[in-house]
Write a structure and sequence with these properties.
By secondary structure, the chain is of the alpha+beta class. The longest helix is centred in the middle third of the chain and has 29 residues. Strand 1 and strand 2 form a beta hairpin. The protein has 2 domains: 216 residues, Ferritin, CATH 1.20.1260; 146 residues, no CATH class. The strands form 2 sheets. A 5-stranded antiparallel sheet has the order 1-2-5-4-3. The protein contains 13 helices and 7 strands.
Length: 387
């Protein structure tokens, strides 16, 4: 799919678009089928499921996450920093949630499921914090609440802390760290554009890694040149959006990304499917929507330019997918397809949260109904044709 074809498809969604309830998840040894309810929640394994060690519990896609937490209660949001939320989880991790990198670090790191813990917040990733991470994240005061949270008794020995990351629409690098804490009180528009600038900047190392890995696989020079251009685009986007954030009182936070490690082609393909073919492509549709609907004329002009670039980046993702597909086994192709399917489902869950009114009217972000329209149309066309 070329950038021109993708742009024509996405523009049709924006033109034809018509102008949720969160279900608590958890675990209990006494929960009954009637208690659990009949509404199946989205099973969200994300890309970390592929990284899980062989000894980790296997994911059961039939599990209904709509069950009750133990007597100590559900996760409690104890601190928010930019678009990161820190949760105190008095019950400990649910049985089907496990550390994706347990073989490397048995006490902290990415979790295979975020929908079980990241309650009522938009997120793209989550990780278990060890004691050092708790202190560094300035959530060490939360244990003082433990007696009250755990029903008046002492703190549950199974209690843990989990950080839930920013909801993002675009290409995010693996190992992206949360930004430093800001004490400034900001408006929803300031938060929106500060987070957007942060994530635009985070796309730079994501594309840098992609280019290095593609070069190692002797990718065509034209593909490498396209990725190089995307790197420059994202650097430009970060600067532009940072200025917009500053205009509304937001502060740009430079992203920190853990050092890259060599990985198998299958891992590259899964990340590209999730971050590029799904999230980056949907982000291009959202950018087009903002270019049409933002109440602020400066934002409309900004998003018009960004949308053009993001559509080209999404088209690159589909080119990368075709290049990598030829180097995968049939089993690996199935895993890539499953990861993409889960990413679409996860995106649908994230979009159930209504954006603040000012972010819709001024920044032009789609409301829930419009976002669902865009997602459904993409599922019927863009992702169906790429399957």
């Amino acid at each position: 799919m070329t950038a021109k074809q993708l742009r024509r498809i996405l523009q049709s969604f924006v033109i034809t678009a018509p102008a949720a309830t969160w279900l608590a998840c958890g675990h209990s040894s006494t929960a009954t089928d009637e208690d659990a309810g009949t509404d199946a929640s989205i099973h969200d394994a994300g890309t970390d499921a592929f990284d899980a060690p062989d000894t980790a519990p296997q994911i059961d896609d039939t599990i209904d996450a709509t069950v009750y937490w133990c007597d100590a209660g559900p996760p409690v949001n104890v601190r928010t920093s930019l678009c990161y939320n820190y949760f105190y989880v008095p019950c400990g991790l649910p049985p089907e949630t496990f550390l994706a990198d347990a073989a490397t670090d048995p006490e902290a790191g990415p979790l295979n499921r975020c929908d079980q813990v990241c309650a009522k917040v938009q997120h793209f990733d989550c990780a278990l914090l060890d004691q050092t991470g708790v202190q560094d994240s300035k959530v060490d005061a939360a244990p003082e609440q433990a007696a009250e949270l755990d029903g008046g008794g002492s703190a549950n020995p199974n209690a843990v802390y989990v950080v839930c990351g920013c909801s993002a629409i675009g290409r995010r690098p693996r190992g992206l760290c949360q930004p430093s804490r800001s004490r400034r009180r900001r408006t929803p528009l300031a938060d929106h554009f500060a987070s957007m600038a942060f994530l635009e900047a985070a796309s730079v190392p994501a594309f840098q890694r992609l280019r290095a890995e593609l070069a190692a696989l002797s990718a065509p020079p034209t593909l490498l040149a396209s990725v190089e251009r995307a790197i420059r685009d994202e650097e430009k986007h970060a600067r532009i959006v940072a200025h917009v954030a500053l205009r509304f009182g937001g502060a740009f936070k430079a992203p920190r990304v853990r050092s890259f490690r060599a990985r198998k082609v299958a891992f590259m393909a899964i990340e590209n499917a999730v971050e590029g073919c799904v999230r980056e492509a949907f982000g291009a549709a959202v950018a087009l929507w903002q270019a049409e609907h933002a109440g602020d004329p400066t934002i409309r002009r900004t998003m018009t330019a960004i949308a053009k670039d993001e559509i080209r980046h999404a088209a690159i993702s589909f080119r990368v997918a075709r290049f990598l597909d030829a180097r995968l086994s049939s089993r690996e192709r199935e895993r890539v397809q499953n990861a993409r399917t889960r990413a679409i489902a996860r995106l649908r869950t994230e979009l159930q949260m209504e954006p603040p009114a000012s972010v819709v009217s001024v920044a032009g972000m789609p409301d829930v109904a419009s976002a669902m329209h865009l997602l459904s149309r993409m599922q019927e066309t863009v992702w169906a044709s790429a399957a």
